[in-house]
Specification:
The complex is a heterodimer of chains A (115) and B (116). With 115 residues, chain A is an all-beta fold. Helices cover 0% and strands 52% of the residues of chain A. In chain A, a hairpin with a 7-residue loop joins strand 10 and strand 11. Chain A is globular, with a radius of gyration of 14 Å. The mean pLDDT of chain A is 93. Chain B is mainly beta and 116 residues long. Chain B contains no helices and ten strands. The chains are: A mainly beta (115), B mainly beta (116). The interface between A and B is medium-sized, with 26 and 30 residues.
């Protein structure tokens, strides 16, 4: 079974600063996908970024980037030049690359951007 | 709209009553998932539909929970004899491909269920 751990229940940062959210996972699989989802107060889960485990290059999407360390089973999210609209719950999620494609989620990190 | 829709947005019910939650996936998406998000928790997988294959019900917490997907599109999650511990946000997601291939899951806004 796969597990995902987010050890930071809450974080806050000043607007325009950089913040890193941590995520570790445990799996015996070699092929899998990792995701960061954002959930604002509206409850809508929004995909922030995804990473395929077979790719060594870290994924980036504008101000969002990941530090994927496969050997350490670590998948952190860096948000640069943070904005007020980044305030939300952030969930790290894991999906194996075969069979049932259900997502396994961490418990989330509540991020608050301070004006 | 083009996204996943869910209804109702909020539902308050009395303990022991049955409830039905509806999910309308993105048009053309063959796979549909139900997740449950309890207060302060991450999302917990409930059930997965892919095309005409038998659904994966491995995440359903009890036999009071059931789901169906009619015509490969709309899905209904039914909770019978609701209990207070069923109170949660129920999220639906859909994606374009099924078993063996991976794609991003797109989520609906969820239904917040409160059992009194």
């Amino acid at each position: 079974a796969q597990t995902v751990t987010q050890s930071q229940p809450e974080m806050s940062v000043q607007e325009a600063e950089t913040v890193t959210l941590s995520c570790t996972y445990d799996t015996s699989e070699s092929n899998y996908y990792l995701f960061w989802y954002k959930q604002p107060p509206s409850r809508q889960m929004i995909l922030v970024i995804r990473q395929e485990a077979y790719k060594q290059q870290n994924a980036t999407e504008n101000r969002f980037s990941v530090n994927f360390q496969k050997a350490a089973k670590s998948f952190s999210l860096k948000i640069s030049d943070s904005q007020l609209g980044d305030t939300a719950m952030y969930f790290c999620a894991f999906m194996i690359n075969f069979g049932n494609e259900k997502l396994t989620f961490g418990t989330g990190t509540r991020l608050t951007i301070i004006p | 709209g083009a996204g996943v829709s869910q209804s109702p947005s909020n539902k308050v019910t009395e303990k022991g009553k049955d409830v039905e939650l509806r999910c309308d996936p993105i048009s053309g998406h063959t796979a549909l998932y139900w997740y449950r998000q309890s207060l302060g928790q991450g999302l917990e997988f409930l059930i997965y539909f892919q095309g005409n294959s038998a659904p994966d019900k491995s995440g359903l917490p009890s036999d009071r929970f059931s789901a169906e997907r009619t015509g490969g599109s709309v899905s209904t999650l039914t909770i019978q004899r609701t209990q207070q511990e069923d109170s949660a946000v129920y999220l639906c997601a859909s994606t374009t491909v099924g078993r063996g291939l991976q794609e991003t899951q797109y989520f609906g806004p969820g239904t917040r269920l409160l059992v009194l």
